[in-house]
Amino acid sequence: VVVEERPTRTYAFQSKEITMYDVYPNPIQVQAFIDYKLHSESVKAKIMIHNILGKNMGEYELTTSETRVKIEVDDLLPGVYFYTLYLDNNGILTRKLIVRK
Q1: d(Cα 92, Cα 40) in Å, to the nearest integer?
Q2: Per-residue pLDDT of the chain in tens (101 residues, 90 and over written 9)
Q3: Does the 11-99 domain belong in CATH 3.40.50.300?
Q4: Which is nearest to 83 in space by CA: 57, 47, 45, 55?
């Protein structure tokens, strides 16, 4: 019997447009996930990854047909990054992301 342990999810943000959970695992070695539920098709939602200097390192569009973003860190050096949730091009929430290899 194989038991898959799922991490305890904590809300990062919740509104009428979206429910988003914190990234896991954090720190990241290979890949991480952000679970979400987009409640409206009319809102444009995305997550952007930035380095400590503000340079865009990745962008992920969020859709109502999906509920999870997979973040690959193959191209990122070890260090501190930030991910920001954008709704209709407005930055709503920024959280820290740590990459370890």
Answers
A1: 16
A2: 554 445 566 777 888 999 999 999 999 999 999 999 999 889 999 999 999 999 999 999 999 999 999 999 999 999 999 999 999 999 999 999 999 98
A3: no
A4: 47
| Cα separation values, 1 from 4, 8, 15, 23, Å | 10, 21, 39, 28
pTM of this structure: 0.84
Dist. CA 80–CA 3, nearest whole Å: 32
Q: Which residues are CB-neighbours of 39 under 8 A, at least 6 positions away?
A: 16, 17, 18, 19
What is d(CA 41, CA 97) in angstroms, rounded to the nearest whole number? 27
Distance CA 72, CA 36 (A): 17
Domain ranges of the chain: 11-99
* 22: its two tokens: 């914190």
